Amino acid sequence: MLYREAGDFKTSYAADSQTFPIKFDRWRYWVVLAVAWLVIPFVINDYWANAILVPFLIYSIAAIGLNILTGYCGQVSLGTGGFMAVGAYSVYKLMTAFPDVSILIHVVLAGFITAAVGAAFGLPSLRIKGFYLAVATLAAQFFLVWLFNKVPWFYNYSASGQISAPERFVGGFAVTGAGTAPAAQYLICLFFVTLCALLARNLTRGSVGRRWMAIRDMDIAAEIIGVNPLTAKLSAFAVSSFFIGIAGALFFAVYLGAVEVGEAFGIQKSFLVLFMCIIGGLGSIFGSFAGAAFLVLLPVALKVLGVDILGWPSSTVAHLQLVTVGGLIMFFLIKEPHGLAQLWRVAKEKLRLWPFPY
Amino acid sequence: MKMKTFATAALAGFVASGPAFAELVVPDLSYRTGPYAANGTPFSDGYQDYLTLLNARDGGIGGEMIRINECETAYNTEKGVECYEATKGDSPLVYEPLSTGITYQLIPKVSADGIPMHTLGYGRTSAAAGETFPWVFNYPATYWDAASVAINYLLSENGDDLSGKKIALIYHNSAYGKEPIRTLEALASKHGFTLTQLPVDPPGQEQKSQWLQIRRERPDYVIMWGWGVQNQVAIQEAANVGYPMDQFIGNWWAGAEPDVLPAGMAADGYKALNMNRVQDYPVLQEIKTQVIDAGNGAGDGSNIGQVLYIRGMYNAMLTAEAIAKAQELAGTSQITAAQMRAGMEALEITNARMTELGMEGIGPEFSVNCQNHSGSGEGLVQQWNAADKVWVPLTDFITPDKSVIDPLIAEDAAAYASENNITPGCL
């Protein structure tokens, strides 16, 4: 009923290969965008921005980034936290060195710097694969965190080794620093999420994305049909790190405001983003959003349910939260290894056939 | 995208807005989980039990009941920010996060929102400069005070001469652990000792290589800036490499029962600073009968009398005294966060008052004013007696070397003010 395809004709190749082939999906996509851009900014408050929506948007960018590398190109990476740290420290150095340049430019530049670092750490992928590559990227994770802790130049020689974001403005509105309105915080993240998602979607369905997927599915075969593994793998590392760098920059500058590298960008962050990709669905842009939403919202929802509604002790709820998230991760891996995105696809199939399944 | 709106709608039903009762709301950003739980739990228990005692015994403060709003942070800054946002709509009076990382996150936020924050002997040291940080308080002492107290103690042990000595600093590789380095470097150049820095990556279970280096270099003294599981591991490792325990001094966050008990007899003789005396105070008996036995304790009551329990209680006492002071200044019992700030700035703790409260001499006498938010900065040195399982105080409260610390605070505060366009001044 909802997913009616009758009368939804395609008369050109372009129409046939569009992102949302079903009319209802297209409409819903615009409705979601409209709500995100035109409704939420007017109703958002500090709690919704800081506890839910801003982290969700930022983790979505990181998950898209990792999904390009792991989901589309098949290169396992455990260096996400380290690459996010590169983004954060780049934007910090740029913000403090060039205070008059717009923060939007700094965030994009931070993405490019991270892309260069990511491509450098992607070089081993030309020789090694799978678990061995995971270990190589793990080295990137530890090396980068160590570097940002060790070299005082990166944190401008501050006494505590923390970096904190000074106040910066976009069109007269503060987007970093303490005086930021929740709507401004949300909108700048939404702006980058929208751009990144569009860019990622169009990269992955174009010739670049086909090369990545060919490498993922069978690298020898890909090479035989003319895909250059060097450019394909390194471009995947660079593009993936670009997104992750933007996520790291926003995470530091817009969301937290002050960051300690070991804690904010430690190995847990790499695992968290990897879980987002796995739970959400490898090789799916929607899956990146779904995974980020799942892992950001679930702990908050459990806390609200346990502490505020049921009145349990906060430590019990925190322990239960670990058990629940862990259990759900296992459940998903066993029951639906392709993640929430696959569940959604199956649900869509069923809706299209409803009420007469065959 | 689609998932978001769905989840938003689903969650909207859960989020309850805080009702505006006439109460004194005190959030407790505690951590009873994670690698720091062993130290976070007794502190939070002491903090909550004292406020519960005030409710049970005195009917709150100035006739207003206190409501504790607990939120679990797991010592994680992201969760700390979430807790802050979740509780700040409840018109809280003061935040006390017991984490230097969370403190750094919250300093700009509380300053913008106009809610005072009290960081008892932790947090950002330069917040002592009250004109630059009007909303942040770190009485009765700061990290830099602690570093200076430790060096002053060593000076008194060595006939006021540390020249040529080797001192190693083993520290939590985070904002917390890095905080004393600047002061120790200044003190090293003043007194002529060499300082070796040994960072331990948080949470700190892995520190074999640092202790091998200590075994090789044999420094005269080892100073530790640790927290949580790091302390337990360090004391065990020190015992393993045979480092003499009486030359090993922890700061005041590395000197409690959970730190030394796991090492058993090997920890005997370990020294640590303390900002509060540990005794069998009469108020502990009241907590036992009126809070724990009545079934209202925050924990199971097994931590009563421990170092961190008493420090949590001491923190709650300072908070309660500041609330009382604020009520007195404002002329009303239902105070706002801004009035609370004024109360904290006018706070004065005397020996007579501490005796009256049943905790004679628990901390140094001090007073807070607009220029100085850090109090007297005094600390004492205590030693662990493993056979009797008690901390034995070795000294009285030692005064830090303010001539070294004050210029450093002024310098750091001025840098912060210029970075953030703050014009220092009293509110």
Helix and strand composition category of chain A: mainly alpha
Radius of gyration of chain B (Å): 21 Å
Strand residue content of chain B = 5-15%
Please identify the oligomeric state: heterodimer
Query: What is the straight-line distance between the termini of chain A?
Result: 15 Å
N-to-C order of helices and strands of chain A? HHHHHHEEEHHHHEHHHHH
Which secondary-structure class do the elements of chain B indicate?
Answer: alpha/beta
Can you list the strand order of the major beta sheet of chain A?
Answer: 1-4
Q: How many strand units of chain A? A: 4
Low-confidence stretches of chain A: none
Notes on the structure:
The complex is a heterodimer of chains A (358) and B (427). Chain A has helices at residues 13-16, 23-43, 46-72, 80-97, 103-122, 130-150, 182-205, 207-217, 219-224, 229-256, 261-264, 267-280, 285-309, 314-335, 339-353; strands at residues 163-164, 168-170, 173-176, 258-259. Chain A is mainly alpha-helical and 358 residues long. In chain A, strands 1-4 form a two-stranded antiparallel ribbon. In chain A, strands 2-3 form a two-stranded antiparallel sheet. In chain A, β2 and β3 (173-176) form a beta hairpin. Chain A is globular, with a radius of gyration of 21 Å. Chain B has 427 residues and is of the alpha/beta class. Chain B has helices at 2-12, 37-58, 77-87, 100-113, 143-157, 175-178, 181-191, 208-217, 229-240, 257-260, 282-292, 307-330, 337-345, 351-356, 402-419; strands at residues 24-30, 66-72, 117-118, 136-137, 166-172, 194-200, 221-225, 248-250, 271-274, 348-349, 366-367, 380-385, 390-393. In chain B, the strands form four sheets. In chain B, strands 6-5-7-8-9-12-13 form a seven-stranded mixed beta sheet, with helices on both faces. A two-stranded parallel sheet of chain B has the order 1-2. Residues 1-20 of chain B have low confidence and may be disordered.
